[in-house]
Amino acid sequence: ALGDIDPGTWDKIKNHPCFSEEAHHYFARMHVAVAPACNIQCNYCNRKYDCANESRPGVASEKLTPDQAVRKVIAVANEVPQLSVLGIAGPGDACYDWKKTRATFERVAREIPDIRLCISTNGLSLPDHVDELAEMNVDHVTITINMVDPRVGVKIYPWIYYGQRRHTGIDAARILHERQMLGLEMLAERGILTKVNSVMIPGVNDEHLIEVNKVVKGRGALLHNVMPLISNRVHGTYYGLTGQRGPEAFELQALQDRLEGTKLMRHCRQCRADAIGLLGDDRGHEFTLAEIPDGI
Ligand code: CLF
Ligand code: SF4
């Protein structure tokens, strides 16, 4: 499936478990939850999981300072030989909570120069930091793009915070869309590999994701990962977008089969913002801060 990927790109993805399906059997990623703040509101968010920007009720992540994160990355690198990628994927937005993201990447790169750096963002603040990402050798970026039409966006995003104030309605969705498109183009210009994650929300953006797929391909995205909205019933109500159900597996697959633009990622495990290990084999519980010695 990756036959038409050029050798330079292949070299960058061959040990990234999300960007290469082959790699996910052999290479591990870890997330550090250093970025709790977010600048938009997704109707489905509960800040427990990310990359995904998806919603799955669960146990809260341990939020780390950059120093704690560096200690944790070193401890994990010593225990998990397959570790190849450090990702920052929330639990808020890694580009909005930029100081902590930047400090973490800089310190980790100093300690472990060969680890690949990866970031996941909603895209609103991304254009402000693309040059710094390039300087820090962050070569994998994921943007969560759920629409390319603000009329769809208004059903997903009640507000955004941008330019020192809150925007709502069509205005909010339009600004977010423009910033996401600008971010995509800036990454492509700099040769930073970009994946688009989309949350499939039945009745809201399911058909529309066909258009999203075409548009993001046109703007240089390497991969498109369509994930199901996870909408568990909690206390009798669905936890999704305004009580929205998630898609059935067959609905997700039927949509994926219709996407003909950019290449699809189909092995996503919708990781927690503090996941560690091979995809689908989360070892995060083995590395709580309490168990990491101060001295390292
Ligand atoms: Fe993490 Fe995301 Fe980087 Fe991967 S996860 S920041 S690109 S290193 Fe991967 Fe997890 Fe799916 Fe994300 S399986 S939720 S796509
Ligand atoms: Fe939640 Fe992520 Fe949306 Fe921010 S971008 S509101 S953290 S799902």
Describe the structure in your own words.
With 296 residues, the chain is α/β, with parallel strands linked by helices. It has one domain: Alpha-Beta Barrel (TIM Barrel). The protein has helices at 7-13, 66-79, 98-111, 130-135, 150-153, 169-189, 209-218, 249-258, and strands at residues 28-31, 40-41, 83-88, 116-121, 138-144, 159-162, 165-168, 193-200, 223-228, 233-234, 237-238, 263-264, 276-277. It has an 8-stranded mixed β-sheet. A 3-stranded antiparallel β-sheet has the order 2-6-7, with helices on one face. The protein is globular and about 50 Å long. The protein binds FE(8)-S(7) cluster (CLF) and iron/sulfur cluster (SF4). FE(8)-S(7) cluster binds next to strand 1, strand 3, strand 4 and strand 5. This is FeMo cofactor biosynthesis protein NifB. Keywords: 4Fe-4S, Iron, Iron-sulfur, Lyase, Metal-binding, Nitrogen fixation, Plasmid, S-adenosyl-L-methionine. Its cofactor is [4Fe-4S] cluster. Pathway: Cofactor biosynthesis; Fe-Mo cofactor biosynthesis.
